[in-house]
């Protein structure tokens, strides 16, 4: 899957601006950037839900329009930030929705579909919740159920839009540990830079719809980029080969210095807001 100079205008506004990317089989690519950077729109373009204003999204080197909607529906699975339903469904019912692209109209579900559902439930640790009502699940369990639905689809590409939002730290880590271990090519939009540094093979940073950086987390997530793109000061170090990002409060100088006009760290109390990756032991 890839994108070649893909642009999308909505209501006269340029939302995605000439983005190009090539996904490598089996990798996890993180989409980063502030709110409004175009991450969700780019995911929908990759999924074929939206059509680009210009440029082309490809699958196996062919434009999505030539591949066909049915093939795309089988190959590419998506997980949105939130999923809601008023219908009374069990966890197994929700996961079984992933088999719909593989069914022919008016034909019964093939036996292999049931096996795919059970395998997805087992892989996501939901086998013992299969008969439980969707409405009784926690936020983390609902997200895992949505990932199980995507896995039951047996995709080769998985697109996730900020799947860790509104989850506590334990569930954030459990979910991304699961995603990173899947045998599929994954694109995941994230806000948490430390989580992206831990779990993504590569990251692509967007600002105002355009790509400003792409590469490994260690190469891309620098103090300068974070300040340029997010407008905040940060210190970046390496631990176990991954960047560890410590965000600084406004007016706080980097470690070992005192910002002009500020009180020394001892006098003003806690001088920086830390989010070290190893202190974050978010489906």
From TrEMBL:
Family matches, as Gene3D superfamilies: P-loop containing nucleotide triphosphate hydrolases
SUPFAM superfamilies: P-loop containing nucleoside triphosphate hydrolases
Keyword terms, alphabetized: ATP-binding, Nucleotide-binding
Segments for region (Disordered): 255-283
Protein origin, superkingdom: Bacteria
Chain ranges of the ABC transporter domain: 1-233
GO molecular function: ATP binding
InterPro entries named among the record's database cross-references: AAA+_ATPase, ABC_transporter-like_ATP-bd, P-loop_NTPase
Database matches in PANTHER family: ABC TRANSPORTER ATP-BINDING PROTEIN, HEMIN IMPORT ATP-BINDING PROTEIN HMUV
Protein name: ABC transporter ATP-binding protein
